[in-house]
Amino acid sequence: MVLAIGFRGTRGHQVTKRARKARFCVQKAHAGPQRVLVKDVIAEVSGSAPYEKRIMELLRNGLDKRALKLAKRRMGTHLRGKRKREELSTVVMKVRLERDAKRAEHEEAMKKARKEKKERLRQAKMNKNKGKKPVKAEATKPAEAAEAKPVEKADAKQ
C-alpha cells in the first residue's frame, strides 16, 4: 500500500482559475505624474526631514552602506530603505550638478569681466599715449639719454 504524500493531482473539485484584479498595495506604489508633482511641491515647500538630511550627509561623504542602515532602521524594511537611499542619492546628485553648473557660470563671468577690464585698460593707455610724441629710437640706452640731456640744458642756459 503506497500513499502519495503531497500529491495534488486531480483531487478535489476542478475549477478554472480566474484572473484577479491587482491588489491595492501594488497599485499604491505606482506614482503617476500628478502624484509625483504633488510630492515634489511638498518636498520643496517643507524641506527634508532630519533623518533624510542625515542620510544625505552620509551619501555626500560616500558612506552608502551606513546610509542604507539608517534608512532601513527609519523606514522599517530593507526594500523601503533602499528606495529611500536611491531617492536621496538622486537629490544629492542633482544638487551637486546644479552647484557645479553655477560655479562654471560664475567662473565664465569672472573670466569675461577680467578680459573686459584688461581691454579697457589697454584702450585707456592707448588714448593717453596718443597726445605724446613718439620716443626717439636713437636714445635707447639710459647712458646715452643721460648724456644728451645735460647738453640740452647747457645750451638752454647760455
Describe the structure.
By secondary structure, this protein is an all-alpha fold. Helices cover 71% and strands 0% of the residues. The relative contact order is 0.04. Helix 3 runs antiparallel to helix 4, helix 3 crosses helix 5 and helix 4 crosses helix 5. The protein is elongated and about 120 Å long. The protein is built from 6 helices and no strands.
Low-confidence stretches: none
Mean pLDDT: 82
Order of helices and strands: HHHHHH
Number of helices: 6
What proportion strand?
under 5%
How much helical structure, as a percent, in the residues?
A: over 70%
Q: Which structural class do the helices and strands define?
A: mainly alpha
Brief write-up:
The protein has helices spanning 24-29, 33-46, 50-60, 64-75, 78-130, 142-157.
Write out key terms for the chains shown.
single chain, mainly alpha, 71% helix, 0% strand, elongated
What does the secondary structure layout of this molecule look like, with pairings?
Elements: H1 24-29, H2 33-46, H3 50-60, H4 64-75, H5 78-130, H6 142-157
